[in-house]
From TrEMBL:
Pathway: Cofactor metabolism; pyridoxal 5'-phosphate salvage; pyridoxal 5'-phosphate from pyridoxamine 5'-phosphate: step 1/1; Cofactor metabolism; pyridoxal 5'-phosphate salvage; pyridoxal 5'-phosphate from pyridoxine 5'-phosphate: step 1/1. It comes from Embleya scabrispora. Catalyzes the oxidation of either pyridoxine 5'-phosphate (PNP) or pyridoxamine 5'-phosphate (PMP) into pyridoxal 5'-phosphate (PLP). The lineage of its organism: Bacteria, Bacillati, Actinomycetota, Actinomycetes, Kitasatosporales. The gene is pdxH. It comes from the Bacteria. InterPro entries: Pyridox_Oxase, Pyridox_Oxase_CS, Pyridox_Oxase_N, Pyridoxamine_oxidase_dimer_C, Split_barrel_FMN-bd. Substrate binds at K126, Y183, R187, S191, R252, M253, H254. It is an enzyme of class 1 (oxidoreductase). Residues 94-217 form the Pyridoxamine 5'-phosphate oxidase N-terminal domain. This is Pyridoxine/pyridoxamine 5'-phosphate oxidase. GO terms for biological process: pyridoxine biosynthetic process. FMN binds at residues 121-126, 136-137, 142-143, 165, 200-201, 246, 256.
Length: 279
């Protein structure tokens, strides 16, 4: 699938804006041909590809205060907003996937302990509908433990190349074991073995210990085609209370439209209102 002209132009503007904002401090060029990966030093910044090549930007980070881009994205048509946030989310996610950006379903999940100590990590969205947004994890991981004690959660979809973000707040609940098993069977065999082998978020002596655990689990399942789901592993559904759509606009006058759930449980019976937030 080809990259749309508007996305290519937007990424090119990002490059040009950075070049202008850090005069004399920037080097821009393509990476070695045929590598398939960006050749970036520790002082480099990577932006998405404009064509078949990746581009890397090397900036002296003493100039961080000057690094900014001028957003020129089209605004959100308020008059065409759907009654619930899910059709617009579907449209945006489809456009991100169509632009061939890496990991379009990646999202930052923020959780907190009961006394308010936060933690974040990036996971992959695996399902969504009007009931909410679903991801899978080890229930014994830090996020699993924190959500068990405090279900308040926030999601962030950082689609920077399109100057877009979606921010979800709500509460997390476990999905059914049947839904978990169905998803687990769709995972590659190695990932299913890895779910058994890894005590996620717990300290481990070294890489060798991890590889030993994986080898032991692999040997244990050598004659088993249908690897079962670990009892300590499963899905969370984030039932949304608010869903904010953020679109970058010129001169930092961004569009921020937030859906706020007024009734129902997040499913098809919920009613929503939309409010505009100052950028």
């Amino acid at each position: 699938m080809g990259r749309s002209k508007s996305v290519v132009q937007d990424i090119s503007r990002y490059r040009d804006d950075l070049l202008r904002s850090t005069p004399g401090r920037v080097r821009w060029g393509t990476n070695p041909p045929g590598t398939g990966l960006p050749d970036v030093t520790r002082s480099g910044v990577v932006v998405p590809p404009v064509g078949p090549e990746w581009y890397s930007l090397s900036v002296e980070f003493t100039e961080l205060a000057a690094m900014r881009r001028q957003y020129r994205g089209e605004g959100i048509d308020v008059g065409a907003l759907p009654a619930t946030p899910f059709p617009l989310f579907t449209t945006w996610l489809t456009e991100v996937a169509g632009a061939e950006l890496p990991e379009p379903n990646a999202m930052v999940v923020a959780t907190a302990t009961p006394d308010g100590r936060p933690s974040t990590r990036t996971v992959l969205l695996k399902e969504f509908d009007e009931r909410g947004f679903v991801f899978y994890t080890n229930y014994g991981s830090r996020k699993g433990v924190e959500l068990g004690a405090n279900p308040a959660v926030s999601l962030l979809f950082p689609w920077h190349a399109l100057a877009r973000q979606v921010i979800v707040t709500g509460s997390a609940e476990r999905v059914s074991r049947e839904a978990t098993a169905e998803y687990f069977r769709s995972r590659p065999r190695g990932s299913r073995i890895g779910a058994w082998a890894s005590e996620q978020s717990r300290p481990v002596a070294g890489r060798e210990q991890l590889e030993k655990r994986y080898a032991e689990a692999e040997a244990g399942f050598a004659d088993i085609e249908d690897i079962p789901v670990p009892e300590f592993w499963g899905g969370f559904r984030v039932v949304p209370e608010t869903v904010e759509f953020w679109q970058g606009r010129e001169n930092r006058m961004h569009d921020r439209l937030r859906y706020f759930r007024e009734g129902g449980d997040g499913g098809g019976g919920a009613s929503w209102r939309v409010e505009r937030l100052s950028p």
